[in-house]
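Exercise 7b. Backbone tokens:
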């Protein structure tokens, strides 16, 4: 936020707090309470899927929320009512979920992946 390019965004922040990372039990409780708030049953996520989300979020609330939401969107896209570990893995392979060191992919690889996903998408819904 200290960079000049972020000044406009920084001026909109009126209050901030640094949260400590949550332990796995707290993280799971957070995700399940979010499901309760929107009226979804806890069975939407399998145990393995929930465990992978908790591990991947590394104790960060925003990461857990965004990953769970992405899994819900992926489930809708793939016409599934239950989110399993395969669903979570499909979300985690997306480039923006990878660690910075894993992002060194050439443009050709990204284009090839994009073309592959479009072909697979067409086959799934044809």
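Sequence design result:
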């Amino acid at each position: 936020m200290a960079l000049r390019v972020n000044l406009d965004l920084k001026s909109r922040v009126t209050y901030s707090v640094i949260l400590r990372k949550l332990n796995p039990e707290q993280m799971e409780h957070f995700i399940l309470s979010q499901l309760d708030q929107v009226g979804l049953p806890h069975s939407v996520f399998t145990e393995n899927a929930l465990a992978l989300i908790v591990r991947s979020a590394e104790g960060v609330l925003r990461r857990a929320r965004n990953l769970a939401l992405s899994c819900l969107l992926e489930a809708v896209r793939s016409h599934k009512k239950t989110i399993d570990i395969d669903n979570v893995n499909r979300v985690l392979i997306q480039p923006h979920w990878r660690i910075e060191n894993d992002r060194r992919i050439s443009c050709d690889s990204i284009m090839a992946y994009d073309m592959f996903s479009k072909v697979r998408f067409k086959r799934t819904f044809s």
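Instructor comment: The two ends are 46 Å apart (CA to CA). The chain has one domain: 22-125.
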